[in-house]
Amino acid sequence: MKGNVAMIRKLLFPIGMVFAIPAAHADSIDGAWCKAQGQRMVIQGATILTPAGTRTQGDYGRHSFTYTVPASDPGAGTQIRMMLMGEEHVQVQENAAQPVIWNRCGPATS
């Protein structure tokens, strides 16, 4: 009986790990975000790689992120506010404009 339990645990542990890995970013705004028009941004703590490709700092919260568009990017000086809306969506708002939903990006391809 003990052997059977050990064998079942050995089989189930890897399966459990596969399902646990996607949850790593599920409860935080960290990660890569994509917009339907082909734009992409990446948040890692207080650092963001903007859609224009500039690395800058912002105000990081586990479920939110705010930054000012850098001088080298289109829309320089615009304040961008983001709020996590579940595992796969983030609401992005530029100044007083209507918010836009971005989606968590799939794996990068080359």
Radius of gyration, in angstroms, nearest whole number: 19 Å
Largest sheet: 9 strands, antiparallel
- Mean of pLDDT: 84
Widest sheet: strand ordering: 4-3-2-1-9-8-7-6-5
Which parts are unreliable, with pLDDT below 50 for 5 consecutive residues or more? Answer: 11-25
N-to-C terminal Cα separation, in Å? 49 Å
* SSE series: HEEEEEEEEE
Count of DSSP E strands? Answer: 9
Helix fraction bin:
10-25%
How much strand content do the residues show? Answer: 35-45%
How many structurally independent domains? 1
Number of helical elements? 1
Estimated structural class? alpha+beta
List the helices and strands and how they pair.
Elements lengths: L1 H19 L10 E4 L5 E5 L2 E3 L5 E3 L1 E3 L2 E5 L10 E6 L4 E6 L5 E5 L6
Antiparallel strand pairs: 1-2, 1-9, 2-3, 3-4, 5-6, 6-7, 7-8, 8-9
Task: Walk me through this protein's architecture.
The protein is α+β, with helices and mostly antiparallel strands and 110 residues long. The protein has one domain. It has 1 helix and 9 strands. The protein has one helix spanning 2-20, and strands spanning 31-34, 40-44, 47-49, 55-57, 59-61, 64-68, 79-84, 89-94, 100-104. Strands 4-3-2-1-9-8-7-6-5 form a 9-stranded antiparallel β-sheet, with no helix packed on it. The longest helix is centred in the N-terminal third of the chain and has 19 residues, at 2-20. It is globular, with a radius of gyration of 19 Å.
